[in-house]
Amino acid sequence: MSTGTARSTPSDTATGCPVTGAGAGAATCPVAFPLRRPGRPFPPPEYADYRDGGEPVRSELPSGPVWLVTRHADVRAVLTDPRISADPSRPGFPKAARTGGAPSADEVPGWFVSMDPPEHDRFRRTLIPEFTVRKVRALRPEIQQIVDDRIEAILAKDGAADLIEDFALPVPSLVIAGMLGVPRADRDFFEAKTRVLVTLSSSDEERDAATAALLRYLGRLIRIKERRPGTDLISRLAATGTLSRQELSGVAMLLLIAGHETTANNIGLGIVQLLTNPQWIGDDRVVEELLRYYSVADLVAFRVALADVEIGGRTIRAGEGILPLLAAANHDDDAFDGAGAFDPERSARSHVAFGYGVHQCLGQNLVRLEMEIAYRTLFDRIPTLRLAVPADDLRVKYDGVLFGLHELPVTWG
Ligand code: HEM
User: What are the recorded GO MF terms, alphabetically (predicted)?
Assistant: First the structure.
């Protein structure tokens, strides 16, 4: 997988600090962020240096300083400390790009990933029953049908397909749309808007327009479902009356966005991993290890300290930003033996690819089932599947808070 278009790193010539992250002094020189991922969508090599250094390292974002946390134990400590907030409206909250960043719940009511307890609890309590292992298992036939249909469409293509566009993206997209009761025909619309929101280089105007369009669309859908309810999640949530219409729009938008792009990236990278390591095809244990190994949501868990807190031996002051790097934690040898190796036989369950603590991914049971069905069915139905280009030529997405592949050209037969 090639480097694609690497982002340039900020220059610190005025301070005399090195411009790359490697070897930068933790206390004095800010390290570059986001870091380049040379050649493969794996954690940048600098993460290992940061972990070895022990303490969090300081970086500078347009929004101010941010402490990068890399050790598995420290990442868990950050994500469970009540003195550390996920609310972007708090002073000092780090933003990944010059513009934009995660919306706060003031901007998008119901956007509960940006809320702290106790506000967060009300949303989480309402939604948890919808994403239990038992509830998700009941979706198996529907997910299987979606996967089967996509494979039929691929097989009708005469020997060449792009498995991102034709498989990895539509599968989770259609699954979450089906769950929510969002018409499948509107897939192009919500996927395009989501892409704007997860792309670092999107301008404020582009983000605001995408957010407004999604909220308008979902607001209209909710009003329709209030009059003519179906059995879908939006209809059922609307019927309970526990959330305002505005909050429900925000919740639906969060689920719609969180529900497809992340999973799509993981499905795509997993297909390449299996095609280049075919001994693991047919073994469902790959799912957990793929989640750990690739950690596609490395850069999503931004936080800010509300009080002085000690993390990994360093005091982080109130008002300073913190970014627990999930991929760095998942490649920590102290947590996983030989963490750099892909080994589905290990127990990877303690990974933090889904975060940790109160915001731990609500959709994780769904993700596991989607990945299991996707890989099993794809390799059962198309046993001669192979990459149409060398793995090193696959273009990796860098311009975002999520990692994945732009395209995945394959052939078969
Ligand atoms: C491979 C796929 C996925 C990955 C790697 C992933 C990763 C994550 C991570 C790291 C967080 C925590 C963010 C934080 O602490 O700030 C999170 C939260 C969340 N995820 Fe996922 N996610 C995936 C798929 C999904 C799916 C399919 C859904 C929905 C159906 C979903 C819904 C959510 C929601 C609603 C939250 C916020 C939970 C809360 O704040 O209580 N995710 N996810």
Answer: heme binding; iron ion binding; monooxygenase activity; oxidoreductase activity, acting on paired donors, with incorporation or reduction of molecular oxygen
Q: pTM for the full model?
A: 0.92
| Average confidence (pLDDT) over 265-287 | 97
Q: Is the CB of 163 under 6 A from ligand 1?
A: no
First to last CA, the chain: 24
Give all domains of the chain, ordered by start, each with its CATH number.
Answer: 45-411 (1.10.630.10)
Pocket test for ligand 1, best of 361, 364, 365, 401 (most atoms within 8 A of CB): 361
**DSSP letter for each residue of 168-191:** ITHHHHHHHHHHHT--GGGHHHHH
Window from 251-265, 321-335, 357-371 with minimum mean pLDDT: 251-265
* Residues 16-69: tens digit of each pLDDT: 565 444 444 444 677 877 777 766 667 888 899 999 998 999 998 877 889 999
**How far apart (Å, rounded) are the C-alpha atoms in residues 165 and 118?**
40
The dihedral of CA 134, 138, 141, 143: what is its sign?
negative
Instruction: Look at strands 160-162 and 409-411 and give their pairing.
Output: antiparallel
- Indicate if ligand 1 lies below 6 Å from the C-beta of 367: yes
* Residue 136: CB atoms within 10 Å: 20
> Average pLDDT, whole number, for the chain?
89
CB proximity list for 252: less than 8 A, separation 6 or greater = 110, 180, 182, 218, 221, 222, 234
CA–centroid distance, residue 301 to ligand 1 (Å) = 10
Which residue puts its alpha carbon closest to atom 18 of ligand 1?
361
